[in-house]
């Protein structure tokens, strides 16, 4: 194999002149400065367009140059990432930057509008790859590979509106790790979560939380909420935006743009706004609607199994949203109706005086769903609910956040019942 060596200044100038000069460009004589060659060729290219005085030399929209300093950081990061992949037995793989357009559009659905198409070059319709997963699937199918644990680091391209301040570019680098094949449930999934924890911890980025889901639970949720099966895919793409958009905006998209009935969207909202870990999984098992859906139950069963495995790996606190509680609140005081602030204040004072750690929202008329979501997010185990019916009957509803079970307790027995439950937990 021929060795590469340094070229003399004149040789560089000649070589650069040939490489940079397009057809019809003015011939540039040999010069000793590389920058002079590049500048001269660029000027010769622009002469026919001198009337365009506003021309600016810049990178294309949504792309960037990486300086030598930035490359040092990137290489250190990629070294850490790739070494973790190799430690877990993955094989390296590379695929072309472009694929047959049909291969890509078959998978991406409504996101196919974000694919960069290339001009026809020899009878094939081609597009730049959108991610590294579809090329991997194509590789497996083409080579009839049944099982493979692989990693792939490479650039991908997406024709979307870039948001540089949020780190969203049209060209960016992805690091993929996939385990393809048929295996016993959740074992490879747990290893993937372990890899994520090792990498994010190794990069010392601070606290992080890994969110997991199961498509069977999502489809089961859509079914029990009344989403037509023909709309499952498009409604799923809206739900995927919850990390970037508020629930209000996602709901608007589903109803106004995708034709979903408002009451169906609201039922979906009751589920997708819940957060938690294994306690939320147990809570979903008790849900009267989801518990009747076979698909959802299968997904919940596997998520419960996954949690057992990540607990053995020592990463349970980083997955399933199992947050470290920052308060010791035992009871939350809530009301489902307006104009009950005074009753809530009376009730919470009674609990405080009994030595029970309690909270309420500092709003006159908070929605009940908002109050219950707060309890789930903060890990508060019990909720006491007071409303018109409770006042008439002289009772208070006591709700378990984990199981969603509610019982009516006589007002005079409430403190004793709460203390009993807290002592048993």
TrEMBL record:
<dbReference type="InterPro" id="IPR004516">
    <property type="entry name" value="HisRS/HisZ"/>
</dbReference>
<keyword id="KW-0547">Nucleotide-binding</keyword>
<keyword id="KW-0030">Aminoacyl-tRNA synthetase</keyword>
<keyword id="KW-0648">Protein biosynthesis</keyword>
<dbReference type="GO" id="GO:0004821">
    <property type="term" value="F:histidine-tRNA ligase activity"/>
</dbReference>
<feature type="binding site">
    <location>
        <position position="174"/>
    </location>
    <ligand>
        <name>L-histidine</name>
    </ligand>
</feature>
<feature type="binding site">
    <location>
        <begin position="131"/>
        <end position="133"/>
    </location>
    <ligand>
        <name>L-histidine</name>
    </ligand>
</feature>
<comment type="similarity">
    <text>Belongs to the class-II aminoacyl-tRNA synthetase family.</text>
</comment>
<dbReference type="InterPro" id="IPR033656">
    <property type="entry name" value="HisRS_anticodon"/>
</dbReference>
<keyword id="KW-0067">ATP-binding</keyword>
<dbReference type="GO" id="GO:0005737">
    <property type="term" value="C:cytoplasm"/>
</dbReference>
<dbReference type="InterPro" id="IPR036621">
    <property type="entry name" value="Anticodon-bd_dom_sf"/>
</dbReference>
<keyword id="KW-0436">Ligase</keyword>
<dbReference type="InterPro" id="IPR004154">
    <property type="entry name" value="Anticodon-bd"/>
</dbReference>
<dbReference type="GO" id="GO:0006412">
    <property type="term" value="P:translation"/>
</dbReference>
<dbReference type="GO" id="GO:0005524">
    <property type="term" value="F:ATP binding"/>
</dbReference>
<dbReference type="InterPro" id="IPR041715">
    <property type="entry name" value="HisRS-like_core"/>
</dbReference>
<protein>
    <recommendedName>
        <fullName>histidine--tRNA ligase</fullName>
        <ecNumber>6.1.1.21</ecNumber>
    </recommendedName>
</protein>
<feature type="domain" description="Anticodon-binding">
    <location>
        <begin position="330"/>
        <end position="421"/>
    </location>
</feature>
<dbReference type="Pfam" id="PF03129">
    <property type="entry name" value="HGTP_anticodon"/>
</dbReference>
<feature type="binding site">
    <location>
        <position position="158"/>
    </location>
    <ligand>
        <name>L-histidine</name>
    </ligand>
</feature>
<feature type="domain" description="Class II Histidinyl-tRNA synthetase (HisRS)-like catalytic core">
    <location>
        <begin position="62"/>
        <end position="303"/>
    </location>
</feature>
<dbReference type="InterPro" id="IPR045864">
    <property type="entry name" value="aa-tRNA-synth_II/BPL/LPL"/>
</dbReference>
<feature type="binding site">
    <location>
        <position position="178"/>
    </location>
    <ligand>
        <name>L-histidine</name>
    </ligand>
</feature>
<dbReference type="Pfam" id="PF13393">
    <property type="entry name" value="tRNA-synt_His"/>
</dbReference>
